[in-house]
Amino acid sequence: MVQGPGAHRQPPRHRVRGELGGRGRLLPPGSGSRLPHDPPGVSTISNNARNAQITSWSPLLGTYTPGDGTTVGTFESGRTEWFDILTNHLGLEYQGGRNGFVLFTDLRADADYLYNPQSQVFISLDTPRTVRAKAQYAAERQLGGLFIDAADADNGLLSNAAREGLGAKETDQVIDMAPYYFTGETTAP
């Protein structure tokens, strides 16, 4: 847990599947795109959906059909680790996707996600930009900190973004994080 002032509680995490909804989450069928409580948390593991039909890019709306078989994933179908996302799906250095994936931003939910129009694969993820925004949200509301799921999978970019969002001051700059705080596409490619 990356801690901020008064760190004493840890927000719960939601992992639900079905429709594509706000914050890049997969929601149960028929639930719409809103959750009553969306806690600040950072995940280095994505949830993926194949046969995704995006009907609105921002706000993100759409459906997917799980079907049989497998989809992209690092160690199991449908779950991709951060290092795999950086290697195969997201090019932070040139602010875009890789291998046919496009980075999108749902401006209403302030969430990033990857989508490949050819394969119709949807990948929910946290980016340095969304992690910093979640940390700022936690700090502004004095929530005490930010939960990071599987921090050992982070190469430092997400942790740096969390620290900056919580207001930590750098002592020695090793990497300039500013180029990593970009939004993706907001309309169909």
TrEMBL record:
<dbReference type="GO" id="GO:0005975">
    <property type="term" value="P:carbohydrate metabolic process"/>
</dbReference>
<feature type="domain" description="GH18">
    <location>
        <begin position="1"/>
        <end position="169"/>
    </location>
</feature>
<dbReference type="InterPro" id="IPR017853">
    <property type="entry name" value="GH"/>
</dbReference>
<dbReference type="InterPro" id="IPR001223">
    <property type="entry name" value="Glyco_hydro18_cat"/>
</dbReference>
<feature type="region of interest" description="Disordered">
    <location>
        <begin position="1"/>
        <end position="42"/>
    </location>
</feature>
<protein>
    <recommendedName>
        <fullName>GH18 domain-containing protein</fullName>
    </recommendedName>
</protein>
<feature type="compositionally biased region" description="Low complexity">
    <location>
        <begin position="25"/>
        <end position="34"/>
    </location>
</feature>
<dbReference type="InterPro" id="IPR029070">
    <property type="entry name" value="Chitinase_insertion_sf"/>
</dbReference>
